[in-house]
Design a protein that fits this description.
With 314 residues, this protein is α/β, with parallel strands linked by helices. It is built from 14 helices and ten strands. The protein starts with a strand and ends with a helix.
């Protein structure tokens, strides 16, 4: 078996009830939920367990909730003797990867992503920006449609290069709408407006990036214990200074997820564990390279399947 990579999910993976079975069985889950609540000054644990879903969906809540859940999954895997040799995370998930690699203190990260969510929402008022997933078209066609809409209607650009055949665009509501119509006409299998409240990773997020930089100046980042791939570059990084710079740029630049996975493969990773809610990144992996082994850990059942797999291969 080659190297093991851990990958951590981004926004949209949240679900009411997440983490409850881990909390009931593992002390480390109790500890991390308690630390998250202390850092935030309100109970993200109660919101994860009981909702309401409307509150959990708010960006400033979603981000610390998913990060906490992802860090709990990682800590439980560590207790069972499973640790990554390289890691990455999609958007928000990059922060979870950096906690796993010892770059960020967990409580610092929880508060940081809560503020990141607030800053992203403040950058573009609700209703004025959006995102859409484009399925079944090449990046060149998508980029061209976005450039055309930006010139004539409103700013829009490709922001998430998730896997072959799935790219997400973001920008002004009008720009996204115009690009979606153009791409449907160009033969997209699907062009779906996403249920998000801001145009993440677009240039419209520049005010959020500036505020995020100021927050990062207040906390200590350490060099990574193992390589983490950066969304902004798609390359490996271990230096605290470089990581800090890339986190700021990540806020208002595209997520190069295909590049991130390919970098992990080049490093020698062929087995990927998605630690945290959902299986989105497992799905992307299948589209990037069917030869990759991918599994997820989000509850006791998926944890057991993953542990059983490693028991067999070892």
């Amino acid at each position: 078996m080659n190297k093991v990579a851990f990958v951590f999910p981004g926004q949209g993976a949240q679900a009411v009830g997440m983490g409850k079975d881990f909390y009931e069985k593992y002390d480390v889950a109790k500890k991390l939920f308690k630390e998250a609540d202390e850092a935030l000054g309100y109970s993200i644990m109660d919101m994860c367990f009981d909702g309401p879903a409307e509150d959990l969906k708010l960006t400033a809540n979603t981000q610390p909730a998913i990060l906490t859940m992802s860090c709990i999954s990682n800590a439980i895997l560590k207790e069972h003797g499973l640790q990554p040799e390289i890691a990455g995370g999609h958007s928000l998930g990059e922060y979870s990867a950096l906690v796993a690699a010892g770059v960020l203190d967990f409580q610092d990260a929880v508060l940081l992503v809560h503020k990141r969510g607030q800053y992203m929402q403040e950058a573009v008022p609700v209703g004025q920006g959006g995102m859409a997933a484009i399925i079944g078209l090449g990046d060149e066609v998508i980029t061209e449609a976005c450039e055309d809409a930006s010139k004539n209607v409103g700013a829009v650009q490709a922001v998430n290069f998730n896997c072959p055949g799935q790219t997400v665009i973001a920008g002004t509501t009008a720009g996204v709408g115009a690009a979606v119509e153009t791409l449907k006409a160009a033969g997209a299998k699907k062009a779906v407006i996403l249920p998000v409240s801001a145009p993440f990773h677009s240039t419209l997020m520049q005010p959020a990036a500036v505020k995020l930089a100021a927050e990062l100046d207040k906390i200590t980042l350490h060099d990574a214990a193992f390589p983490v791939v950066a969304n902004y570059t798609g390359k490996m990084e271990t230096s605290a200074a470089e990581i800090k710079e890339n986190l700021v740029k990540q806020a208002d630049h595209p997520v190069k997820w295909i590049d991130c996975v390919q970098t992990m493969q080049e490093f020698g990773a062929d087995t990927f564990i998605e630690a945290g809610p959902g299986k989105t990144l497992c799905g992307f992996n299948r589209r990037i390279d069917k030869a990759l082994t991918s599994m997820n850990v989000e509850n006791l059942e998926s944890l057991q399947k993953t542990l059983d797999y490693f028991q067999e291969v070892r």
